[in-house]
Amino acid sequence: MRSLALFLLAVSTAFCADDPWAKVRELKSGTEIRIFKKGSMQPVLAKMDEASADAVIVVVKNEQISIPKDQVDRLDYRPPQPGGRVKKEVTTKTETPDTRVGEAPVPHETPTQTTTTSTNYVIGSKPDFETLYRRPPPAPKGK
Asked: Is the pTM higher than 0.85?
């Protein structure tokens, strides 16, 4: 039984290597994508919903649309950013009072150490799009 599972895994891996559309089908729902359609100058910016063998279903401005695979020239995706875009920066500064030689200390005053802490939140930029799918060139015509 285990050898059958390994065989099926090997076959599906080999199939994915031959089928560039398989990577599109593996994209998670909600991934930000950019689709260059055949004959169009402007790409479609959308969120991934799901992909089938012959189309990709995306959400554009809260509207779900289907784009046939044969209309997709190129599909780019924005990879997920580990840890998110918001980074927390904490800075701690400790100051010790300066006891100078030659100065008389003020009576009944003990030098104290002070600590200052500040927290900043920095919003980073989104990662660039990466090409996931490009339409394969047409097969050469036979003579």
From this structure: no
